[in-house]
């Protein structure tokens, strides 16, 4: 059974603790990015990690009520990396932001350990209240390019959010979410901490497409049975070919 853990605070203890987290962040990037050739390259050139490292400092300042300076440093990091992380957000260890341009993480967001985020991801709020209004992301979650997770909701551990999905309701652990609004699909093979990172954020089951195809096939079967098994054909029915390409006149959805 997959457990869900709350993200841990990144309030590092001293320079040694900070350096240990930097080392773990570099190792995580090396494991999850096939384009990475060395730890030195990652340390010098990866904006996702640079944004997280600046956030470690700004979050410490935020917790110690040096909030104006914290916001100033976070905006500086935003300009340099294209990644906006509010100083109040909580980021766990081993988090990897791949490419990262356009990533936005809100003030009360909590991101667990070993999470992977791709470019264009938003962890956004949906309320004007001052309390918790941003998502909580469990451990080992992968969030695909362009995905939006909105509101004070929990994304369970070992889940995968498909590219460009919009998630507005809680997601159980070991789930796959696709579509707008996001549709939750239970994994057929459970993912755990001992498995390799699940980075297949472009593997998107077409729930709506499959449903429409099954409905159209059922309608066609019923029509063929009507009027004493007389075959009834209608031009507005578009039947998908076995290779899932659609046949018929051009139409727009």
Describe the protein in words.
With 253 residues, this protein is an alpha/beta fold. It folds into two domains: 14-186, Hexapeptide repeat proteins (UDP N-Acetylglucosamine Acyltransferase, domain 1, 3 Solenoid), CATH 2.160.10.10; 206-253, no CATH class. Helices cover 32% and strands 14% of the residues. The protein is built from five helices and 15 strands. The protein has helices at 14-32, 39-45, 47-63, 67-81, 207-229, and strands at residues 84-85, 90-91, 96-97, 104-105, 110-111, 116-117, 122-124, 136-137, 142-143, 148-150, 154-155, 160-161, 166-167, 175-178, 183-186. The strands form three sheets. Strands 3-6-9-12-14-15 form a six-stranded mixed β-sheet. A hairpin with a 4-residue loop joins strand 14 (175-178) and strand 15. Helix 3 runs antiparallel to helix 4 (67-81). It is elongated. Mean pLDDT is 81; it is low at 1-9.
List the helices and strands and how they pair.
Layout: H1 14-32, H2 39-45, H3 47-63, H4 67-81, E1 84-85, E2 90-91, E3 96-97, E4 104-105, E5 110-111, E6 116-117, E7 122-124, E8 136-137, E9 142-143, E10 148-150, E11 154-155, E12 160-161, E13 166-167, E14 175-178, E15 183-186, H5 207-229
Parallel strand pairs: 1-4, 2-5, 3-6, 4-7, 5-8, 6-9, 7-10, 8-11, 9-12, 10-13, 12-14
Antiparallel strand pairs: 14-15
């Amino acid at each position: 059974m997959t457990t869900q853990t709350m993200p841990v605070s990144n309030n590092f203890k001293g320079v040694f603790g900070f350096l240990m987290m930097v080392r773990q962040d570099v190792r995580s990037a090396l494991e999850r990015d096939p384009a990475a050739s060395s730890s030195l390259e990652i340390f010098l050139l990866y904006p996702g990690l640079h944004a997280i490292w600046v956030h470690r400092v700004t979050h410490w300042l935020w917790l110690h009520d040096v909030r104006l300076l914290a916001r100033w440093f976070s905006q500086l990091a935003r300009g340099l990396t294209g990644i906006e992380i509010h100083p109040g957000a909580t980021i766990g260890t081993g988090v990897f932001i791949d490419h990262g341009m356009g990533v936005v993480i809100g003030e009360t967001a909590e991101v667990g350990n070993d999470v992977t985020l791709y470019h264009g991801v938003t962890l956004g709020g949906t309320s004007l209240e001052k309390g918790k209004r941003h998502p909580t992301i469990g451990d080992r979650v992968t969030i695909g390019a362009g995905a939006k997770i909105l509101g004070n909701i929990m994304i369970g551990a070992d889940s995968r959010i498909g590219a460009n999905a919009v998630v507005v309701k809680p997601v159980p652990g070991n789930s796959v979410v696709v579509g707008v609004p996001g549709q939750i699909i239970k994994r057929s093979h459970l993912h755990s901490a001992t498995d390799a990172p699940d980075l297949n954020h472009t593997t998107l089951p077409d729930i709506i497409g499959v449903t429409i195809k099954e409905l159209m096939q059922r309608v066609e079967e019923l029509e063929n049975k009507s009027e004493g098994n007389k075959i009834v054909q209608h031009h507005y029915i578009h039947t998908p070919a076995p290779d899932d390409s659609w046949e018929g006149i051009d139409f727009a959805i």
